[in-house]
Amino acid sequence: MCTSETFQALDTFEARSDDMVLASYPKCGSNWILHIISELISADSKKKYKYSEFPVLECGDPEKYQRMKEFPSPRILATHLHYDKLPESIFKNKVKILVIFRNPKDTAVSFFHFHNDVPDIPSYGSWDDFFSQFMKGQVSWGSYFDFAVNWSKHLDHENVKFILYEDLKENLTAGIKQIAEFFGFSLTGEQIQTISAQSTFQAMRAKSQETHGAIGPFLFRKGEVGDWKNLFSETQNQEMDEKFKECLAGTSLGAKLKY
Ligand code: A3P
């Protein structure tokens, strides 16, 4: 999905000041937030927002960035890259960046199921096998912990905001309001409530084949906090707690991540 030619071409990508970046490690809820932002744009512009191309910035063919010049604003740019791997024009144009985090245990479990459920990507023999690869960072897009450490250094930047999957689960309406405010949408309470009702897990899963095709039901699998308890052994639990402490203790992200 991400060739070295595409990575090289990424440097030529020309960001616009009204682009919206959504950064996340895989399986932290990016399709959820993409949906919310699309609904915010649709409500604000009074016409249905539709992606013009596969929204993950670093995926696709190298000519993609030329085609993207023709896309109307505002463009949503989803990415799983580290902060310092983003193209320079994003910083030059002061593009707003929303980062979504999810606790590493549920993220790992979601990633494991995704690999094993989706037919076209490699599957893992067992959960234990996936867990050890995940801890070594030998999975697609690399280590969760490297991603978190990298972004944790930039979360207080002026154009960066971070939100937690778990907070959004706890209070979806409040989360949507924060996202709207960050990107500068001024919608009524009623509009926010409507978007909230359309963005619950149940609502999105029910429409997943319509919105995402055959992969839909795998993208909207369970949508819960704490599913890790069904797969982690006590040793794995301790190993991840140790790694988490080692990488993120003392950071504001480490203090806020919940599980
Ligand atoms: P699970 O596999 O734990 O169910 P991504 O979009 O980054 O690939 O993340 C996928 C994860 O986000 C999946 O987690 C999916 O169910 C969850 N998700 C997607 N939409 C959601 C929603 N509306 N509410 C809660 N979780 C959601």
From TrEMBL:
Its main location: cytoplasm. It is found in: Cytoplasm, Cytosol. SUPFAM superfamilies: P-loop containing nucleoside triphosphate hydrolases. It comes from Pteropus vampyrus. It comes from the Eukaryota. InterPro entries: P-loop_NTPase, Sulfotransferase_dom. This is Sulfotransferase. Its EC number is 2.8.2.-. Belongs to the sulfotransferase 1 family. GO terms for molecular function: sulfotransferase activity. It catalyses: 4-ethylphenol + 3'-phosphoadenylyl sulfate = 4-ethylphenyl sulfate + adenosine 3',5'-bisphosphate + H(+); thyroxine + 3'-phosphoadenylyl sulfate = thyroxine sulfate + adenosine 3',5'-bisphosphate + H(+). Sulfotransferase that utilizes 3'-phospho-5'-adenylyl sulfate (PAPS) as sulfonate donor to catalyze the sulfate conjugation of thyroxine. Involved in the metabolism of thyroxine. The lineage of its organism: Eukaryota, Metazoa, Chordata, Craniata, Vertebrata.
